[in-house]
Amino acid sequence: MITSPSSRRRSERSRKATLEAALGLCAEKGYARVTVEAIAARAGVSKKTIYRWWPSKGAVMLEAFTEGLLDATPFTDTGDIAADLRTHICAAVRLLSTSPFGPAYAGILSEVHHDDALAKAVREDLVEPRFACAVERLRRAGEQGQIPADADLPLAVEMLYGPVYYRHVLRKPPQDEATVAALVEHVLRSLGARET
Protein backbone atom coordinates (compact mmCIF):
# COMPACT_ATOMS: atom_id res chain seq x y z
CA MET A 1 0.00 0.00 0.00
CA ILE A 2 1.31 3.49 -0.87
CA THR A 3 1.14 5.89 2.03
CA SER A 4 0.85 9.63 1.63
CA PRO A 5 3.68 11.84 2.87
CA SER A 6 3.39 13.06 6.41
CA SER A 7 1.95 16.51 6.99
CA ARG A 8 5.34 17.58 8.32
CA ARG A 9 7.03 16.67 5.01
CA ARG A 10 4.28 18.41 3.07
CA SER A 11 4.78 21.49 5.24
CA GLU A 12 8.54 21.47 4.66
CA ARG A 13 8.00 21.10 0.92
CA SER A 14 5.57 24.04 0.98
CA ARG A 15 7.95 26.10 3.10
CA LYS A 16 10.82 25.52 0.67
CA ALA A 17 8.59 26.25 -2.32
CA THR A 18 7.49 29.51 -0.69
CA LEU A 19 11.06 30.64 -0.01
CA GLU A 20 12.15 29.75 -3.55
CA ALA A 21 9.13 31.55 -5.00
CA ALA A 22 9.87 34.68 -2.97
CA LEU A 23 13.49 34.82 -4.13
CA GLY A 24 12.57 34.01 -7.72
CA LEU A 25 10.00 36.78 -7.87
CA CYS A 26 12.43 39.21 -6.24
CA ALA A 27 14.97 38.45 -8.98
CA GLU A 28 12.38 38.94 -11.72
CA LYS A 29 10.36 41.90 -10.46
CA GLY A 30 12.40 43.58 -7.74
CA TYR A 31 11.59 43.45 -4.04
CA ALA A 32 9.01 46.26 -4.03
CA ARG A 33 6.84 44.61 -6.69
CA VAL A 34 6.65 41.21 -4.99
CA THR A 35 3.39 40.51 -3.16
CA VAL A 36 2.33 37.74 -0.81
CA GLU A 37 -0.36 36.84 -3.36
CA ALA A 38 2.28 36.38 -6.07
CA ILE A 39 4.47 34.30 -3.76
CA ALA A 40 1.52 32.06 -2.89
CA ALA A 41 0.58 31.59 -6.54
CA ARG A 42 4.16 30.78 -7.57
CA ALA A 43 4.68 28.38 -4.64
CA GLY A 44 1.35 26.62 -5.10
CA VAL A 45 0.22 27.38 -1.56
CA SER A 46 -2.58 29.52 -0.20
CA LYS A 47 -2.08 33.06 1.03
CA LYS A 48 -3.50 31.84 4.33
CA THR A 49 -0.71 29.25 4.57
CA ILE A 50 1.94 31.93 4.12
CA TYR A 51 0.40 34.14 6.78
CA ARG A 52 0.17 31.15 9.13
CA TRP A 53 3.98 30.79 8.94
CA TRP A 54 5.13 34.38 8.37
CA PRO A 55 3.64 37.74 9.40
CA SER A 56 4.71 39.60 6.25
CA LYS A 57 6.47 39.48 2.90
CA GLY A 58 9.58 40.83 4.63
CA ALA A 59 9.56 37.89 7.03
CA VAL A 60 9.39 35.42 4.12
CA MET A 61 12.29 37.18 2.39
CA LEU A 62 14.28 37.30 5.63
CA GLU A 63 14.02 33.54 6.11
CA ALA A 64 14.98 32.93 2.48
CA PHE A 65 17.94 35.31 2.72
CA THR A 66 19.10 33.89 6.05
CA GLU A 67 19.12 30.33 4.72
CA GLY A 68 21.12 31.44 1.69
CA LEU A 69 23.59 33.33 3.87
CA LEU A 70 24.10 30.39 6.23
CA ASP A 71 24.74 28.04 3.32
CA ALA A 72 27.15 30.41 1.56
CA THR A 73 29.14 31.75 4.51
CA PRO A 74 30.09 29.12 7.09
CA PHE A 75 32.60 30.11 9.78
CA THR A 76 35.46 27.71 9.10
CA ASP A 77 38.52 27.26 11.30
CA THR A 78 41.64 26.31 9.35
CA GLY A 79 43.91 27.64 12.06
CA ASP A 80 44.61 30.82 10.05
CA ILE A 81 42.28 33.58 11.20
CA ALA A 82 43.26 35.99 8.40
CA ALA A 83 42.60 33.42 5.66
CA ASP A 84 39.33 32.34 7.28
CA LEU A 85 38.09 35.92 7.56
CA ARG A 86 39.04 36.68 3.96
CA THR A 87 37.17 33.58 2.78
CA HIS A 88 34.12 34.38 4.89
CA ILE A 89 33.87 38.05 4.01
CA CYS A 90 34.44 37.41 0.28
CA ALA A 91 31.60 34.86 0.37
CA ALA A 92 29.31 37.42 2.04
CA VAL A 93 30.24 40.05 -0.55
CA ARG A 94 29.50 37.61 -3.39
CA LEU A 95 26.11 36.73 -1.91
CA LEU A 96 25.14 40.38 -1.45
CA SER A 97 26.31 41.14 -4.99
CA THR A 98 24.15 38.49 -6.65
CA SER A 99 20.49 38.31 -7.47
CA PRO A 100 18.20 37.50 -5.79
CA PHE A 101 19.98 37.68 -2.43
CA GLY A 102 21.33 41.22 -2.71
CA PRO A 103 18.01 42.76 -3.80
CA ALA A 104 16.12 40.73 -1.20
CA TYR A 105 18.36 41.96 1.62
CA ALA A 106 18.22 45.56 0.40
CA GLY A 107 14.43 45.32 0.40
CA ILE A 108 14.38 43.85 3.89
CA LEU A 109 16.62 46.65 5.16
CA SER A 110 14.36 49.26 3.61
CA GLU A 111 11.35 47.80 5.43
CA VAL A 112 12.91 47.60 8.89
CA HIS A 113 12.57 51.39 9.21
CA HIS A 114 8.77 51.15 9.34
CA ASP A 115 8.19 47.54 10.44
CA ASP A 116 9.23 47.05 14.05
CA ALA A 117 8.46 43.31 14.03
CA LEU A 118 10.67 42.79 10.98
CA ALA A 119 13.44 44.92 12.51
CA LYS A 120 13.31 42.74 15.63
CA ALA A 121 13.40 39.56 13.54
CA VAL A 122 16.40 40.82 11.53
CA ARG A 123 18.29 41.48 14.77
CA GLU A 124 17.27 38.26 16.53
CA ASP A 125 17.23 35.78 13.64
CA LEU A 126 20.03 37.10 11.45
CA VAL A 127 22.34 39.74 12.90
CA GLU A 128 22.80 38.58 16.49
CA PRO A 129 23.42 34.87 15.73
CA ARG A 130 25.88 35.72 12.93
CA PHE A 131 27.57 38.32 15.13
CA ALA A 132 27.95 35.73 17.89
CA CYS A 133 29.48 33.24 15.41
CA ALA A 134 31.99 35.83 14.24
CA VAL A 135 32.96 36.71 17.82
CA GLU A 136 33.32 33.01 18.61
CA ARG A 137 35.62 32.49 15.61
CA LEU A 138 37.80 35.39 16.78
CA ARG A 139 37.75 34.01 20.34
CA ARG A 140 39.12 30.69 19.06
CA ALA A 141 41.83 32.60 17.22
CA GLY A 142 42.68 34.21 20.56
CA GLU A 143 42.95 30.78 22.18
CA GLN A 144 45.32 29.79 19.37
CA GLY A 145 47.51 32.79 20.15
CA GLN A 146 46.69 34.65 16.93
CA ILE A 147 44.85 37.53 18.63
CA PRO A 148 45.74 39.13 21.99
CA ALA A 149 43.59 38.03 24.90
CA ASP A 150 42.44 41.59 25.65
CA ALA A 151 41.25 42.35 22.09
CA ASP A 152 37.79 43.89 21.79
CA LEU A 153 36.20 41.14 19.69
CA PRO A 154 32.72 42.68 19.24
CA LEU A 155 34.32 45.90 18.00
CA ALA A 156 36.51 43.88 15.63
CA VAL A 157 33.43 42.23 14.14
CA GLU A 158 31.83 45.62 13.53
CA MET A 159 35.04 46.87 11.91
CA LEU A 160 35.22 43.83 9.63
CA TYR A 161 31.61 43.65 8.47
CA GLY A 162 30.55 47.30 8.65
CA PRO A 163 32.23 48.22 5.34
CA VAL A 164 30.52 45.30 3.56
CA TYR A 165 27.04 46.41 4.59
CA TYR A 166 27.86 50.12 4.17
CA ARG A 167 28.71 49.49 0.52
CA HIS A 168 25.65 47.30 0.04
CA VAL A 169 23.18 49.75 1.57
CA LEU A 170 24.57 52.71 -0.39
CA ARG A 171 24.77 50.65 -3.60
CA LYS A 172 28.47 51.29 -3.96
CA PRO A 173 30.59 48.79 -5.91
CA PRO A 174 31.31 45.73 -3.73
CA GLN A 175 34.79 45.01 -2.43
CA ASP A 176 37.05 42.84 -4.52
CA GLU A 177 39.32 40.20 -2.97
CA ALA A 178 42.25 42.62 -2.65
CA THR A 179 40.10 45.16 -0.81
CA VAL A 180 38.76 42.47 1.54
CA ALA A 181 42.31 41.26 2.20
CA ALA A 182 43.40 44.83 3.03
CA LEU A 183 40.40 45.24 5.35
CA VAL A 184 41.15 42.01 7.21
CA GLU A 185 44.84 42.88 7.51
CA HIS A 186 44.05 46.36 8.83
CA VAL A 187 41.56 45.11 11.44
CA LEU A 188 43.79 42.30 12.65
CA ARG A 189 46.76 44.68 12.88
CA SER A 190 44.65 47.11 14.91
CA LEU A 191 43.92 44.26 17.34
CA GLY A 192 47.62 43.52 17.68
CA ALA A 193 47.23 40.12 16.00
CA ARG A 194 50.39 38.21 15.20
CA GLU A 195 51.07 37.45 11.58
CA THR A 196 50.55 33.83 10.52
UniProtKB/TrEMBL annotation:
| A molecular-function term among this protein's GO annotations | transcription cis-regulatory region binding
Keyword annotations for this protein, in alphabetical order, are: DNA-binding, Transcription, Transcription regulation
Q: What InterPro entries does this protein's entry cite?
A: Homeodomain-like_sf, HTH-type_TetR-like_transc_reg, HTH_TetR, Tet_transcr_reg_TetR-rel_C_sf, TetR_C
DNA-binding region(s) from the entry: 35-54
Transcription regulation keyword on record? yes
State the superkingdom.
Bacteria
> Which PROSITE patterns did the record assign?
HTH_TETR_2
Domain HTH tetR-type as annotated: residue spans: 12-72
Q: Cite the source lineage.
A: Bacteria, Bacillati, Actinomycetota, Actinomycetes, Kitasatosporales
Presence of keyword rRNA processing: no
Q: What is this protein called?
A: TetR family transcriptional regulator
Record's Gene3D superfamilies? Answer: Homeodomain-like, Tetracycline Repressor, domain 2
